[in-house]
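look at this:
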Amino acid sequence: MALQDDEVIQDGNVAIIHSWQLQSQCYLRTSTSDVIVLYITDIVERHRILSLLASRDSHCRIILLYKMDVSSGYVFQGPFPWLIPEKIGFAELYSCLYEASETIFNQREFSERERIVFRYFCEGYSVSQINEMAGFNEKHIYYLRQKTKKMFGLRGNNAAAMSFYLDISKLNRRW
């Protein structure tokens, strides 16, 4: 890959690793200086890898590539994981990798209510059903969903949003 000798990868190397090579946690030893770009379309396999990355010993920066509309004005910043469109151009990917390599590691933390809402959305429940089961105000459920979608540049209530909620559940060590 062209980035191998570039300043973006200053102290490390670019390695292409296929998911089948990651049979267990022992192979995946990450550090806070690592940037992992994950693009796996098979949901089961992606969740297996995300579960490996969610271990207590893993503190890498995770960038998830998704089939999604590009949200205008999205900047690469804030806690990880970062969510970017799969059709990103080389210049934008370069910028993203550079920003990730310069950003201090910080994992996104979600409130207990956000995790409950994510889990119920992942299980296919509607806002009114979540209201009944969890006892949250429907307006608050809509607010949490909108806040998360805005935070990650997601639009609509489409498959990318639902898939992302599932991925967040796999990255969260407390679930």
Q: What stands out?
A: Strands lie at 35-38, 61-66, 82-85. Residues 7 and 98 are 8 Å apart (CA to CA).
